């Protein structure tokens, strides 16, 4: 897509969303829980090289182009007891930078602390007695979200997804909620597996951003 296609009035909204997710426009995470509450989480960021360049052109050179450089991740984990970095890799394609990190956790509290550290727009709760882990992605739309800019955003984010998976010994279930934690039907544009050994949900990142109030997932095992 050539730069001349961007309307000047659309730039603030686009950059607000870019900075909201630390330039990340695709993210997936997969949690594997053991019987004793320990486990492993794999997180992958997919970052558009074009949006990174756009952010720098608009005077945001000081903003990090990578949401979690290895040294930043290591500093974060050093502050969270019960976590350990297993692997960290980056690779670049013609369109994206892809970052993958694998983290071991010794208990669900450590997992919740780690996930909470990833973004101010993500909140995670853990209930040990109920055997549940809840995650909410908060949506912050701006006043510039006109029909024209939203249409442009849908082109930007085409092919970029938000994906979440959870597995544990025995049966697991997943409940979809709104931003306040109230149970709602799964979005019609999401692909989901709600129960079984592994539960998951995947949807376009633009569709996620377009949900007023945010989206939550509650995993039970």
Helix content range of the residues, please? Answer: 10-25%
* 3D shape: globular
* Counted beta strands: 10
Outline the biggest β-sheet: 10 strands, mixed
Element pattern in H and E: HEEHHEEHEEHEEEHE
Figure out the total of helices: 6
Separation, N- and C-terminal Cα atoms? 44 Å
Describe the structure.
- With 221 residues, the chain is an alpha+beta fold.
- The chain has one domain (3-220).
- Helix content is 24%, strand content 39%.
- It has helices at 11-20, 49-57, 70-78, 108-116, 147-156, 205-209; strands at residues 26-33, 39-48, 83-92, 96-105, 122-127, 132-137, 161-178, 191-193, 195-204, 215-220.
- Strands 1, 2, 3, 4, 5, 6, 7, 8, 9 and 10 form a ten-stranded mixed β-sheet that branches.
- A hairpin with a 1-residue loop joins strand 8 and strand 9.
- The longest helix is centred in the N-terminal third of the chain and has 10 residues, at 11-20.
- 31% of the residues are buried.
- Residues 1-22 have low confidence and may be disordered.
Can you give keywords for this protein?
single chain, 221 residues, alpha+beta, 10-stranded mixed β-sheet, disordered N terminus
């Amino acid at each position: 897509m050539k730069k001349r296609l961007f309307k000047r009035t659309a730039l603030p909204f686009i950059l607000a969303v870019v900075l909201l997710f630390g330039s990340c426009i695709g993210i997936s995470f997969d949690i594997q829980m053991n019987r004793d509450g320990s486990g492993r989480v794999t997180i992958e960021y997919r970052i558009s090289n074009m949006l990174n360049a756009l952010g720098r052109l608009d005077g945001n050179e000081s903003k990090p182009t990578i949401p979690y450089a290895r040294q930043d991740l290591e500093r974060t984990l050093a502050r969270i007891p019960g976590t350990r970095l297993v692997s960290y890799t980056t690779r670049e394609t013609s369109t994206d930078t892809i970052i993958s990190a694998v983290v071991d956790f010794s208990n669900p509290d450590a997992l919740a602390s780690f996930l909470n550290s990833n973004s101010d727009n993500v909140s995670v709760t853990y209930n040990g007695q109920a055997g549940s882990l809840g995650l909410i992605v908060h949506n912050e739309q701006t006043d510039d979200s006109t029909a024209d800019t939203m249409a442009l955003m849908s082109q930007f984010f085409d092919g970029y997804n938000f994906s979440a998976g959870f597995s544990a010994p025995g049966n697991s279930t997943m409940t979809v909620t709104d931003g306040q934690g109230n149970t709602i039907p799964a979005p019609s544009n999401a692909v989901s597996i709600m129960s079984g050994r592994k539960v998951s949900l995947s949807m376009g990142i633009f569709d996620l951003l377009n949900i007023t109030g945010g989206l939550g997932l509650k995993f039970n095992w």
